[in-house]
Amino acid sequence: MKKLILIVAFYILNGMFLNAHNLNNEMLAIRQWHIKGNSKTVEGAFLMCKNKEVYIENNVHQVLHFSIENLSVTDLNFVEQKQANILKLNRAPITEKKQKQQGLGWSDMLGLLFAFSIMIIGYVLYHTVSRDKIKYILPILATGVLFSLYSFTNRVMQAMATTTDPVFVDSAFTPFKPNVYTRWDNTYFYVESKGIPSHEMMTGITGWQQQFPIPQCYTGTNAWQIPLNPVKAVTPVPVNKNHFLRGAVAIAANGVAIFNPYTNTGVDAFLDGQLDNFGGHCGRADDYHYHIAPLFLDPATADIVPIAFALDGYAIYGSKETDGSAMKTLDANHGHSGVNGVYHYHGTASAPYMIGNMVGVVTEDTTLQIIPQARAQPIRPAGAPLKGAVITGCKPNGAGNGYTLVYTLAGVTDSVEYSWTAAGVYTFNFYVSGTKTTNKYNGFKQCNLPLSVPQIAIDALGVLMYPNPANTQLNLKLTATLSPKAIENISIYNATGGMVYSTLGFKETIDIKTLSTGVYMVKIKTKDQIITKKLMVN
Predict the structure, then answer these.
(1) Nearest to 449 by CA among 218, 265, 261
(2) Residues 201-215: b if buried by 16+ CB within 10 A, e if exposed
(3) Pairwise CA distance, residues 22 & 397, whole Å
(4) Strand 390-396 relative to strand 402-409: parallel, antiparallel, unpaired?
(5) Cis geometry, peptide bond prior to residue 352 (ω within 30 degrees of 0)
(6) What is the DSSP pairing of strand 315-317 with strand 343-346?
């Protein structure tokens, strides 16, 4: 009976230490703010609260600030909750670099203490209990020690293996800015883009679906989301004709989505002639995307960086390993663990091209797409296949608001000219055998990405700040409209409102090497007003 009690007690205690916890944080989101004195609600996302003022970034990335005394009760409660969450995150960082600085957590220390306690108890019992009884007790105690140490070691290894440094992720996208804009929290790395690459699109397609590349608004709450804490799946889900047939499975470093090699009709898009010279085409919403690995991005950078990231959180490389050596043998998932022990995929010129199975845990909805998923916005009915047509060119117009697509069919060259207005009116002119047909559609208004490099204007007064995001040095430049003598002081505040830098007068270069990764507010005080702008430090 005593032996049974000891066994039950051990498993109860040991189970307490095997349980882990997960952090689940609220995403940055646009909301409606009710400001006293404003006839209309203000739409924007919360940035920070300082000196009894709340700072809000609206949907065109302007920073507004209002006194908290003018907030509604609901808005005030929201701000207080966000401030509490910010303080909690700052006290419990989870990136790999910060975890190493932080050391062991309290649960890990308790696990070690539990293991050593069992060892001490075993030592005491060994010297106090008779030899005919000790043979039953020691195996139980030894098992408890081993399980406790295993639990501790397993948690630490999992934490190290499933946390990605967002600065590392950002290094893949940096060469392609400002066509992409990046940001992150402790859960996701966000990629904002318009889904349009710098290379020519559509040329070379022989299986045309009569879709045309139109810039999309993958911005704000509709940005692409890469998990920063990927978890390996017990059974990886295959990327094939039965899974992930809608939406993206990865996002390329140039901000273009990458879909399953198979289309929603179950055919290999590459072998079916549906892809252009760069492995892409347009979907039913006129959204441009790739269906195979964008290997041409690999030589676009001097360093060995990922050419894409899968939506399960794991990196995708080209033909070389992370240390620059030739690609090693790939497993059934089309990847392997690198020299650092972290799993990654590789792109190849033959099937499955990039991902054989999703190594990381993902959620697939009933429409066979990974969620969360950025959404394209169709502005017209989907086209139908034009059998025998071959696209020979797709050039942007001089105004930067449309394209001219040229194709041949049965030896005849025809074209389509299409463009859009700032109000969201899309005009398509079809030229077939000398006959012009025009269709117009009311669609979404084109959006603008936040500028990343090399310069962004703080406001119309003539102050330029670059680069943004920055990591070691911030540069300020004044145009002819503003004199250095007009600048009284420059201050930088962190997300909780604490001042982290201040200088009197104007300074062209500011050293920010000591600032940790995150969002900051830069304030430049002139004799007439305070100029405010958001700064990303990576």
Answers:
(1) 218
(2) bbbbbebbbbbbbbb
(3) 50
(4) antiparallel
(5) yes
(6) parallel
pLDDT tens column, 228-282 = 989 999 999 999 999 999 999 999 999 999 999 999 888 999 999 999 999 999 9
Q: Identify any residues that bridge with 232 across adjacent strands, giving them in sequence order.
A: 360
pTM of the shown model:
0.60
Rg (CA), the chain: 28
Buried b / exposed e over 77-115, threshold 16 CB at 10 Å, is ebbeebbeebeebeeeebbbeebeeeeebeebeebeebb
Residue 6 host element (H or E): helix 2-18
β-pairing, 456-459 with 463-466? antiparallel
**Assigned token pair, 300:** 């676009």
Are the beta carbons of 244 and 371 closer than 8 angstroms? no
The structure tokens listed for 104 are: 């062991």
- Dist. CA 107–CA 18, nearest whole Å: 9
Phi, psi (degrees; rounded to nearest 5) at 371 = -125, 145
Q: Cβ distance 532 to 490 under 8 Å?
A: no
Residue 209 near residue 221, CB atoms below 8 Å:
no
